[in-house]
Every structure is written in structure tokens, then in C-alpha cells.
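Hi Q.,

Before the meeting this afternoon, I wanted you to have the glycylglycylglycine prediction in hand. No need to reply - just skim if you have a minute. The sequence and ligand are here:
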Amino acid sequence: MAKYRIAVIPGDGIGKEVMPEGIRVVDAVAARFGIEFTWDHLDWSCDRYHSAGSMMPKDGLDGIKGHDAIYLGAVGWPTVPDHVSLWELLIPIRRNFQQYVNLRPVRLFEGVPCPLAGRPDIDFWIVRENNEGEYSEIGGRLYPGTDNEMAIQENVFTRRGVDRILRYAYDLAQSRPKKHLTSATKSNGIIHTMPFWDERVKAMSEAYPEVRTDQYHIDILTAHFVRNPSRFDVVVGSNLFGDILSDLGPAVTGTIGIAPSANINPERDFPSMFEPVHGSAPDIAGKGIANPIGQIWSGAMMLDHLGHKDAGQVIVRAIEKVLTQPELLTPDMGGNATTEQLGKAIADAL
Ligand code: GGG
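Predicted structure with the ligand bound:
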């Protein structure tokens, strides 16, 4: 029997509500496929920040580096500055474990109310660079409290970092029927890092002659996401652009609540991490109405990563089935179901 030890970080807000549903569904499919999961629950969160002074213990990463994967809910709460909660928890995990690929599927499911006319066929992947770029600690504040006060933030784009995310995105595009890659840029305004990004895209494209490459400035690209999302196949972007696009993509499919993500360490020398795209949603936290599908689908991506593609696909098919039943939709999809009702329905539909 395949056995896996998973570090579970429910985190904050609705992360604590959707995580039990993710575990319920993964455990249910695991039982069918003869897989055993041991879930090690960690209290790393803003609550811990208040009680113990930090989001996670100092030696926290050492404690989980031998786990097979990390299953995370959501991070952030209004009582802790967002840059503190992110830089003390999510970003150290992504960086120390070299999870440099953030893979985020965007799909319109039957049954989910879509704001776009004609319900276009939407089924593409966003590949977000996850370790460098605009998410950089290089910079500082000068002359605080004076009229000359300034904040400086450096972007970091390395050839190694850019090439490895482009290679991942091109490999993915090459494996898909449409073989189409779109690069997000802004080289007209950001005159050092973005022309460099574009140059590396051009160089990488030469190694993938079958893949059709195009590129758009991020501003018009967001417009195309809204006006014509079915044109996309694989979209690759820097850390910030990928983050923005991967909220916008699911939003045009009706709800960000269903969107999953995988923070992947492709070399597999450290655990990868699986988390919904959404955050802790303080506005609905505690009400039991959060959509658990982003968490559950992230569990399917975890199974896929661990080598159980079939088990992951069974979960996705159960999600497809349940979404066609209006009485099982949570409020973000226009229904009245609770987090638990939807999670249980997916487990029953496996
Ligand atoms: N489940 C994802 C989550 O909690 N995200 C919080 C957030 O602000 N993430 C920013 C990022 O992914 O860079």
C-alpha cells in the first residue's frame, strides 16, 4: 500500500473550514485506491502569531522537509499586516523548498454561473513564477515621516529563475493539443526586467518549434482574459503577473472559490505544496458557507503529483458531477449549500 505523510496547514479564516472537506475527499478516494495518508496538523497561522509571536516555529521548515507534501488552506487575517503573514509563512515555504512553479488551472465547469455571454469554452493553465520577480525583499524605506519619505522595491529576475519557469511552461504547452503559449509582459514600461523576460521567452521558444508563442502586455492581457478567455492554452507570467492573472482567470469562470494551485518543486528534493488560490476571506469566515472546491481540487493535484493521476481524476469527475446540481452549490455560485454539504456530496460522488 502506498503511504504518504502530509503536513496540513489550515491557516486562517475559511482555510480552517475548507481543509476538513479537502481531507474528507482525499481520504475517501485514497481508501478506494489503496492509498494511506497520515495528516500532521500544524497550527501555523495568524492565531499562532498572536499567541506565540510568529506564524510558524523557527525550526518549522526542518520539521516538514521530509514530508511527502504540504496541504495548505489560506493565510492572512486583518489583525496581522499582510506582508508579515505572507513573508513569515507562505513565502519561506515556497522559497526554501524551491517550489518555483505555481501551477493554476482555469476551467469553466457546467453548472457554475458564468458572468460571460455565451459560456465560452474555458480550459487553460497559468504557470506562475513562484520564487523571485516582483516578490523580493530587496529595497527599503528612507527618510520615514518626512516630506522626502520614499519606498524602494527591487525586482529580481535571474536567467536561471526565468529559464526554468519558461521551460516548465513550454513543456506543458508542448504536451497539450493546442500547443499554444502566451507570455505576460510589460516591457514597454518596465525597461530592465521585462525586456530580459521577453528575450528569454524568445530564446526558449526556439527549442519548442511546435509551440505557437505569443505575448501581451499585462494590461491588454487582462482585457483578453475577460473578453475572450477561450483563446488561451498555457499562460506564463512572473510572480506578480501570474498572481493577478490567476485570480482573474477563475473569476471569469464564475468564482475564485473553485480554483486550485500546486506550488511545485519539480526536482522533488523537497515537498511540494497544494493550496486553493483564494485567501482567508474574512468577510465570510465562520459562516460555514465557503466553497471547498479549491481545496478539494488542490487535493486532486496533490494526488496527481504523488503519482496517483487516476485518483486525482476521480475527484475532478466527482466535482464535475456535483456542480450540475444547483441545490449543492455554495453562495458564491448562486446556491445555498454549506461548505460541509458540498464537501460531503463530492465525497459521496466519487
Ligand atoms: N490559499 C492561498 C492564500 O492564502 N493566499 C494568500 C495570499 O495572499 N497569497 C498571495 C500569493 O499567493 O502570493
